[in-house]
Design a protein that fits this description.
By secondary structure, the chain is α/β, with parallel strands linked by helices. Helix content is 22%, strand content 13%. α1 runs parallel beside α2.
């Protein structure tokens, strides 16, 4: 679904960090109303790669969220996140699905 629905934004990086400029762009986009549905969802993969400045920009958006916006920050563990980036956030540990096995004949 990522990349195909206008109200879902997936952020992934090949870089070592996610910087302030990229995060500001996300926050500005989050201020817009959803275009097709009631909610917009922003998923940040590797949120643990945010610089301290980027985390501070995001913190402001999370503390005073835009209406009908959901932020999903993904990291290997909550300990990998900068402490200020999600002080009041709900955490939901997710484990990768085990590989499916074909039934044996």
């Amino acid at each position: 679904m990522a990349g195909t629905h206008p109200d879902v934004t997936l952020v992934a990086t090949d870089q070592l960090t996610i910087g302030v400029d990229q995060t500001r762009g996300l926050v500005l986009g989050a201020a817009m109303s959803p275009s097709r549905r009631r909610w917009q969802v922003i998923v940040v993969e590797d949120a643990d790669r945010m610089t301290e400045g980027a985390a501070n920009v995001l913190l402001k958006a999370i503390e005073e969220p835009a209406p009908r916006t959901v932020w999903i920050l993904c990291a290997p563990s909550s300990q990998d996140m900068l402490p200020r980036s999600c002080p009041a956030a709900d955490t939901s540990p997710c484990a990768p699905r085990p590989p499916t096995r074909s039934p044996t004949p």
